[in-house]
Structures are given as C-alpha cells and as structure tokens.
Amino acid sequence: MPQPARSIQAAPGAIEPLPQPYLLFLGDVAEPAYAKTAFGLRDWAGERCVGEYACVGAKVSTGLRYLTPEQAFAEGARSMAIGVANPGGHISPAWVPQLLQALEAGLDLIGGMHARLADIEPLRSAAARLGRRLLDVRQPPPGIPVASGRKRSGMRLLTVGTDCAVGKKYTALTLVREWRALGVDAYFRATGQTGILIAGQGIALDAVVADFAAGAAEMLSPDAGAEHWDVIEGQGSLFHPAYAGVALALLHGSQPDVIVVCHAAGRETVLGHPGYPLPGIEETIELNLRLGRRTNPRIRCAGVSLNTAKLDAAQAERLIAAESERLGCPVADPMRGGEAFRRLAQACLR
Amino acid sequence: MPQPARSIQAAPGAIEPLPQPYLLFLGDVAEPAYAKTAFGLRDWAGERCVGEYACVGAKVSTGLRYLTPEQAFAEGARSMAIGVANPGGHISPAWVPQLLQALEAGLDLIGGMHARLADIEPLRSAAARLGRRLLDVRQPPPGIPVASGRKRSGMRLLTVGTDCAVGKKYTALTLVREWRALGVDAYFRATGQTGILIAGQGIALDAVVADFAAGAAEMLSPDAGAEHWDVIEGQGSLFHPAYAGVALALLHGSQPDVIVVCHAAGRETVLGHPGYPLPGIEETIELNLRLGRRTNPRIRCAGVSLNTAKLDAAQAERLIAAESERLGCPVADPMRGGEAFRRLAQACLR
Q: Which InterPro entries does the record associate with it (chains A, B) (predicted)?
C-alpha cells in the first residue's frame, strides 16, 4: 500500500495549478473499481485531501473523514474533485444537488470525466452566479505552442511502455517519492487525468490537437536547474495502432535523458487489439532510444518497470531476477518495492 | 505547368463533400505567392471552378473568368472558396462585403485560413438568416473514432517525407493524374487544407485531437475494392521535432501498401529548425517501412519523389539519374514529369 505522498505537488511552470486542497467526491458509487481516481488521490495527494463527500447511499469510502462541503471549506478546501471514473465517463443527474452544494459552499468543481461539467446547465449558471470555476482536467491549457525542438535545461525521465495501462503513471510517482526521500529535487509531470489531479497540474496529452502535442510536452516540463528532475508520465506506446503518434510526440517533446520501460508481465497482445502482438522489451527500449535521440542525443534506458500484479510474490521475485539477468539492466516492480526497486531508482540517477 | 486535373474529385467515403463547383475568391491580394491556394485549385480542380472574384484593386488573377457571385451561382457554383493564404491566416475586414454578397447570391463560403469564418459576426448572422453554410476545411468532421488497427481492403499509397513542404501533396496529385490516365481506379485523399479544397473533401490531420489522429486516417480511406487505390497526402515527417507524432499517426492509420519518399534536393536542415539536420533518404525509407509494418506488414517503398525546383533542367536530370543509381529505385521530379516519373508511377503499381 503506498504511503501518503511526499510532495507530489504542483511544480513551478507555465501551467496554472488546480485549486487545492481537495474535497473528494464519490457520487453514488457502489463499486470500488469505479472510485480508483479517489483512491489514487488519497494515496498520492493525501496531504491535499481534507476529506470525502458522497451522495446518501454511496457504498465506497476512501477512509478519509466524511465532511460536508461547508465543513471542508472551513478546513481549507478550495475545490471538490470528482473521484469517480465510471464506464462511459458520465456525470450522473443524482450528483447534481451535491455538486451545487459545493459551489454554494465556496468550492470550485474539478472533473476528469468524458462529460464536461460546463455542459450541465444548473452547474453552469450556479458557477457564473457565484463566481466559481468548473475545471475539466482533460481540457488543455490555452497557448500551447508548436514544438521548437530547442533543448531545455534540467534533467528529465519519461516512463514509456510496451502498451497502455502497464504502470507508467505509478512508476513515475514511485520514482519521485523514492528520489525525494533521498533529497533529489524531483517533480512528477502529469499527462493524464488522474495524474493531473494528483500533481495538481499537468496537460492531458491525448486531448491536445495533434499539431501541438509535442509542443504541449515541451510546455509541460520547462527549463529547470541542472540538478532538477522532471519525471514525466508516459502515454500509450510507439507500437500501439491507435496511440503511437501521441507516444512519439511525448517522447520528442519531453526530450528525456532517461527512459524506464514499463511492461505488464504475461500480457501478450495490445490491450483491446488482440490482433496486435506486444513488442518485446528489448525492441521497446531500442525504438524509444532511437527515436528519442532525435531531440536528446544523450537519452539512455535505466531499466524496466515490470507490473507483476498477476503473479504471487515468489513468482514475481523469480521473474524479476530472470528478466534483469536476461536484459542486463535493473528490473523491478514498483508496487513491490524492495531492493530491486531501489536499484532501478539509483540507476536512473547515475 | 500542370494541366487541368482529370478527376481529382470527391471520392466515396464517410466524409461529407464540400459544396461545388467553386467560385474562387482572391480578396485584395497583391502578391501571387499569397494566392497559391487559388492557383492550386485552378490547376487541380479547374473543371470545378466556374471563375474567380476579388475586391476592387486586387492585383492577382488565376486567369479564370471574372464572375460576380450572382453570375457564378447562375452558372452552377454552389460555394465561394477563399483562395488566399496570407501570413497569419487572417480574414481581412476589407473582404467582408464580398463574402456577404456571396452568401446573398446563394453560395456557401469555404475557408481554410487560421481565422474562422464563423467567428466574424456579420457572416455568422447572414449565414443563419439565409440558411447558408460557413465551412472551415481545417475543422475535423464529427464522429472520428479511435483507430481500430483493423486491416482494410483496397490498396493505399502514402507520400512521406524527409521534412515538411517537400512536395508530398503535389506527388500524390500527379500520381493520381498519371494513374487515372492509365485507367487505374485511383483517388486522392487529402489531409491538408489546400488538398481538401482540391479533392472536395478530406480531413486536416494536424487539426485532429491527438488520440484520434490515427482514427482519422482510418476514416479517410475506408474499405474499397481490391483494385482500388487511395493515394494519401502525407504530412510532416517522422524526423520532425514538432510533427513526427502526426506523421506516425497518419502512417499507422493509412496502412499504406506503398510509400513514396519525398525530398527537396539541397535541403539540409528541417525547415524552420536549423539545429536539426535532415535525415538521409535511405534512413527515411527504412524508418517508415519499419514503423509502417506495424499496421501493414506488406508495406514497401516504390521510389523517391525529388523536388528539384532549385536546379536547372540539366542539373536536375543528372541528380535524378545519380540518386536513382545510388538508391537502386526509381527517382523522379513530378514537376518535371517525363520518363523518370512514368517509371516511378509504374513501380508503385507493380
């Protein structure tokens, strides 16, 4: 179980931070899997979550204190973040009274769903009347430039993958936590909706118009001190039949000094595309280095993050050791931590 | 000088065709370079251009008959297309009376500028009152899906490049013209604004949200008969620090059976990015084939389209022969045509 995060907070940069601390909203959710955004926020931004709120009859709790929007505002909350990720990404009409209550209590609303808060009429008029904001973390910021390709100062790590949903966000977050514990000046740079809520800022890369996607990645991790690390959440995969373009724009714009390749043990085909065999880890390393060299000739791969959630502890340990031997680089499952993960985290800094 | 096109017209597919024939509008343009959209339409869609119209004092003409919007409507025109591509892509206030006149005369308006027709108040209200359309060819169609990666029937050629602005559109258009003259069932599939006006339909790939860019390329060239060829206008380059993601999405979604690599002779760095050396032609072939194989294992390179506009005829002929010898494949400049170009066009069909 991850501990409350140390400092996965908003980094300095051009992108406006979200209003925080958060009150987490669980809606009327009855299935823990649909509350994973709230769990992620509790685990990684716990010090910026004053509590949780829900509709009467909700069956899931994050374990944080139950606070009304009024109580949460009194304790410092400045927004209520919808922590539900239901299939279809809709905002249920049953939630609207609680969402209005939060606006009345002085909180902005933050959503990361497919549905837009501003498309719901009572919310739009209440926000206008009260001077509150309806923030959609999937909405890119204004003013994203075309990428310049200019090499930026500071150090960058990008998590890349053999596929979607292999642990790129989790790997980036655990590396930042580990490094900050060692005194490294490191920030998490979010490129997806849950990551943006955790970081308190970021850009949903997949929602940017294609011509500006590499420019968005450049904007996301601006010039920084020579010892500063931005750890950037990867998206998609260079081998994905739908999302490879996003992955390449992110690789070029991020200009990573270091990549960590993420893979889910046992997965053999692209998620949702059973006709597409997954690339090997070696091929994933090689192609990312080759293409990444275009904007940062010093790019290197520090190791592999292996998601072993489907294995038991002994199987996982054996596989991690065997893969490390086979590939000749550190391999670890950040969920399991331990010495293997510390070696991977160290190898990135070398 | 290209002849009037044979049949670069709207192809069957899911994307709504633009209203045609066109009346070309030249605004108050005084510099031929800024009227190149109009020249492109005259050269490639001449049979669908009833004439030209301009503000008093315009100093550029396409050579087509000067017709008022009322005359053009009477001769069958159904839209007035802005044929100006000025720096900044703005719509001059000086054009608004003529644009309103066209709406009153029964014509829809088509723009491909950065500025949107619908953002100009008198046009918006006049269009609403008259039931006319303000069409922006850079606006992607609704309902673009995430790419499926499913292999589609029919044959596809994609022009790819070492850089932007090397002749990818022109190469695709000349191949279609050559093939149709030979009786091949071939259509031009447009991915940029001028191409869309020429074809009468298409998708501005660079304006699609990144997650859907490969899906847009799939939508652009739907399933077709086994002998049918879609010739797809390439965008950007896999080596471009800003646009590589667009190029990869287009490569994956197009699933080309054949690529033709386009290069501008003498160009040594990426246009607008002098710090980025251009890749070699061999490297461009190899990387496009390697990445394109992911969605179409049968992909092959049929040859090279070499833009020799900066050379005289003798220099061009020598360079084309030398490059063909060096690369071991057909090389031609479609602007110069001739036997070399016929060999290239044949090699694509082999």
A: DgcN-like, DgcN-like_C, DgcN-like_N, P-loop_NTPase
Q: How many CA atoms lie within 13 A of A309 on its CB side?
A: 11
How many domains does chain A divide into? 2
Strand partners, A198: none
Judgement on whether residues A187 and A326 belong to the same structural domain of the protein: yes
Q: Which residues make Cβ contacts (< 8 Å) with residue B198, sequence separation at least 6? A: B5, B8, B40, B41, B44, B45, B173, B188, B190
Residues of B with CB under 8 A from a CB of A: 146-150, 205-211, 213-215, 238-239, 241-250, 252, 270, 273, 275-276, 291, 294-295
The interface predicted TM-score (ipTM) is 0.93
Dist CA A114 CA A131 (whole Å): 24
CB B80 within 8 A of CB B102: yes
Orientation of helix B281-292 relative to helix B313-327, angle to 10° = 50
Question: Would residue A144 count as lying in a domain?
Answer: no
Range of the domain at A204: 155-349
**Mean pLDDT, range A242-247, rounded to an integer:** 97
Subunit contact B210:A149, Cβ cutoff 8 A: no
Residues B216 and B329 in one domain: yes
A230 located within any domain = yes
Chain A CB contacts of B209 under 8 Å are 206-210
Determine if residue B13 is left, alpha or beta; phi over 0 gives left, psi from -120 to 50 gives alpha, anything else beta: left
Q: What is the pLDDT of residues A1-21, one digit of tens each?
A: 344 344 466 676 668 899 999
Closest CA to A309 of A275, A345, A334: A334
Are both A341 and A248 inside the same structural domain?
yes
Nearest residue of A to residue B215 by CA position? A242
Residues B169 and B130 in one domain: no
Same domain for B127 and B163? no
pLDDT in tens, A169-197: 999 999 999 999 999 999 999 999 999 99
Q: Are both A182 and A118 inside the same structural domain?
A: no
Q: Is A44 within a domain? A: yes
**Amino acid at residue number A313:** A
Q: At what angle are helices A313-327 and A281-292 packed, to 10 degrees?
A: 50
Minimal CA–CA distance to B170: which of B339, B5, B340? B5
Q: A45: domain CATH number?
A: 3.40.50.720
Q: Check which CATH number belongs to the domain holding B279 and give it.
A: 3.40.50.300
Q: Report the pLDDT averaged over residues A108-113.
A: 93
CB contact under 8 A, A148 and B245: no
Region for residue B255 given its phi and psi (left: phi exceeds 0; alpha: psi -120 to 50; beta: otherwise): left
* Residues of chain A that touch chain B, judged by Cβ-Cβ distance less than 8 Å: 146-150, 205-211, 213-215, 238-239, 241-250, 252, 270, 273, 275-276, 291, 294-295
- Residue A182, judged by CB atoms within 10 A of its CB (0-12, 13-18, 19+), counts as exposed
Q: Is residue A61 part of a domain?
A: yes
- Domain identity same for A202 and A116: no
User: Are A246 and B211 in contact (CB < 8 Å)?
Assistant: yes
High-pLDDT (> 90) share of chain B, %: 89
Residues B109 and B205 in one domain: no
Q: What CA–CA distance (Å, rounded) separates A183 from B183?
A: 70
The average confidence (pLDDT) of chain B is 94
Q: What is the pLDDT of residues B193-225, one digit of tens each?
A: 999 999 999 999 989 999 999 999 999 999 999
Please give the residue of chain B at the shortest CA–CA distance from A210: B210
Q: What is the DSSP letter of B221?
A: S
Which residues on neighbouring strands pair with residue B134, listed in sequence order?
A: B109
The predicted-structure confidence for B256-289, as pLDDT tens digits, reads as follows 999 999 999 999 999 999 999 999 999 999 999 9
Final residue in a domain of this structure, among B87, B103, B136: B136
Residue B8 DSSP class: -
